[in-house]
Every structure is written in structure tokens, then in C-alpha cells.
């Protein structure tokens, strides 16, 4: 998922995926400024989150491992690896819950079974399976109501295509998908727990209206961020063209200088020849 962050110095940071590369772009841009390549092995599912003044991220690499990192630290950590060839992971996403940072992800098997997990990105022992079944593809949305934090695990139609972060699909109010499970954050247990395995969500009536409003607000914010990213990309292409023109002008000036230098050397050579002839004639 593409993301935009406001930095303490007033700049903006854009983090996005392009041609399997995770790119970082700071704005406003300066001539000659190009995106910084953070990683070049991103197979998909980039998720990032600003938490406690630092930007953390996870992504899936070419070997289907889940990589966890922080932009302040050049080192990264492999936090999930497939245990067998018939196992892989889908849509890992970072999300804050109860004041802590957690990784939520779906573990898949080739028999179409799926398990939904939450865990600490730093400690693999703090892992919990929240759900196991055969529905899919799956994704998650979060919302807050009556001072409680809720999480819904949803199953989409097979014809639907999901990509990137769960939050992108959360904004799609017309998806018509089935709510598989609804969870609520348990403050004492510091974990999500199922509140109803049969009812299709906490907010079917009044809560549903508030959730729809939240989705519409997120959709507007998402469109605004995408528009800003498009403008930055256009600006980057313009700067690339200006840099190319500048390089061409420098090359032309360099060629003219070399030609003038060669002419000057030839004139100096001719001047020395005439001087030598003059001195020889004067001696005679």
C-alpha cells in the first residue's frame, strides 16, 4: 500500500512500491532528486505505520518471507517464513491495538484452509491464532465505537481482486462481502477475542451507519493521497526531463570547449613555428 507521512521538519515522505522496489520519496523535490530504493525484492503486500515517532513496515519478499523493518534502521528482520511448500502468507498488516504495535496476517495452505493470526513483530512467542477456516480471500477492517475497538474479518467473492493493505479494501463500501467473524479488543487480556460467531458484525444498525461514514471519510482521504502521489510522480517525470536537457546542454558545452581548446593548441603551435622562423632569419 502506498503511504504518505508528515515529517517533523515539515517535509512529506512517500513510501510506495514500483517494479518490485520499495521507494522512498521526500517532498518538496529538488532538481536531480530521485526516489531512494529501500528494497528491491518486494513481491507484494507492503504495509507501513507511523508509531511512536518512527515508521515501521512489513512486506513479502521473493522467497515469500515476511520482512519487518524501521526506516530509522538499515537492518531488517525476517519474522515469518513458510514452513512448507504448500504454505504462504497473505496481506500482512501493521496495526496498533491497546497501545502496542501488532502484525496481523493470514496463513494459507494449498487445501484452501486459512488461519488468521496476530503477533508482536519483535517477539514470535507473542502470537495468537484468532480464527481458522476455509473462507477466502480474507481481509480485515477496524473501527471504534462506544469506547471499544472492533475488528471484522471478512470474506470476499472469488472474482474480487485484493491487493496491498487491508485498509484499501476497508474503503470499498460496495464490496458486498460476508463478515466471517467480529472481534473486540480485550483490555485485560491485551488481545482481540471473538464476540459473536453467528451475527454478521457489531454494527448492523446504528453502528453500521457510523462505520459507513468512516469508510466514506477514509475513501476521500485515500483519493486525496493518491492524487498527491500522482502529482509527485508527474513532478518527478518533469524533473527527469529537465535533468536530461541539462545533461545534453553540459555535453554540448563540453564538446565546444574541447573544440576551442584544440583550436587554441593549433594556433599556439603555428605561433611557435613563425617565431622560430623569425629568430632564425634574424640570426642570418
Describe this structure in words.
There is one protein chain. Mean pLDDT is 81; it is low at 157-175 and 197-206. This protein has one domain: Tachylectin-2, Chain A (5 Propeller), CATH 2.115.10. Strand 5 (42-51) and strand 6 (54-61) form a beta hairpin. The chain is of the alpha+beta class and 284 residues long. The strands form four sheets. The chain has a four-stranded antiparallel beta sheet, with helices on one face. It has helices at 166-170, 206-283; strands at residues 3-6, 12-18, 21-27, 36-39, 42-51, 54-61, 66-70, 73-80, 87-97, 100-109, 114-119, 127-133, 138-145, 148-155, 178-186, 191-196.
**Computed CA radius of gyration, to the nearest angstrom:** 29 Å
**Strand adjacency order, main sheet:** 1-2-3-4
Q: What would CATH call the class?
A: Mainly Beta
Q: Please tally the helical runs, counting DSSP H or I stretches of 4 or more residues.
A: 2
Mean pLDDT: 81
Work out the count of structural domains. 1
Mind telling me which CATH architecture this is? 5 Propeller
| Helix residue percentage | 25-40%
At the fold tier of CATH, the topology name is Tachylectin-2, Chain A
Largest sheet: 4 strands, antiparallel
Which percent band covers the strand fraction?
35-45%
| Spans where pLDDT lies below 50 across 5 or more residues | 157-175, 197-206
Total DSSP E strands: 16
What is the 3D shape? elongated
Keywords: Coiled coil
Amino acid at each position: 500500500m502506498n503511504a504518505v507521512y508528515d515529517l517533523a521538519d515539515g517535509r512529506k515522505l512517500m513510501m510506495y512500491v514500483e517494479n518490485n522496489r520499495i521507494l522512498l520519496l521526500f517532498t518538496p523535490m529538488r532538481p536531480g532528486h530521485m526516489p531512494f530504493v529501500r528494497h528491491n525484492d518486494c513481491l507484494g503486500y507492503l504495509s507501513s505505520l507511523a508509531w511512536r515517532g518512527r515508521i515501521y513496515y512489513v512486506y513479502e519478499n521473493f522467497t515469500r518471507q515476511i520482512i519487518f523493518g524501521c526506516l530509522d534502521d538499515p537492518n531488517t528482520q525476517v519474522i515469518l517464513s513458510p514452513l512448507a511448500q504448500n504454505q504462504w502468507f497473505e496481506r500482512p498488516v501493521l496495526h496498533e491495538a491497546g497501545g502496542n504495535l501488532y502484525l496481523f496476517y493470514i496463513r494459507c495452505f494449498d487445501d484452501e484452509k486459512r488461519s488468521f493470526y496476530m503477533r508482536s513483530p519483535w517477539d514470535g512467542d507473542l502470537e495468537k491464532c484468532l480464527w481458522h477456516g476455509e473462507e477466502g480471500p480474507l481481509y480485515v477492517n477496524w473501527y471504534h465505537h462506544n469506547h471499544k475497538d472492533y475488528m471484522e474479518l471478512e470474506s470476499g467473492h472469488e472474482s474480487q481482486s485484493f491487493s496491498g493493505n487491508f485498509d484499501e479494501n476497508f474503503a470499498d463500501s460496495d464490496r458486498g462481502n460476508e463478515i466471517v467473524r467480529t472481534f473486540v479488543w480485550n483490555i485485560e487480556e491485551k488481545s482481540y477475542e471473538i464476540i459473536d460467531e453467528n451475527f454478521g458484525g457489531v454494527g448492523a444498525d446504528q453502528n453500521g451507519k457510523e462505520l459507513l461514514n468512516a469508510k466514506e471519510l477514509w475513501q476521500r482521504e485515500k483519493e486525496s493521497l493518491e492524487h498527491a502521489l500522482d502529482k509527485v510522480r508527474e513532478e518527478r517525470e518533469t524533473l527527469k526531463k529537465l535533468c536530461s536537457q541539462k545533461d545534453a546542454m553540459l555535453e554540448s558545452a563540453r564538446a565546444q570547449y574541447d573544440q576551442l581548446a584544440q583550436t587554441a593548441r593549433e594556433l599556439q603551435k603555428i605561433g611557435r613555428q613563425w617565431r622560430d622562423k623569425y629568430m632564425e632569419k634574424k640570426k642570418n
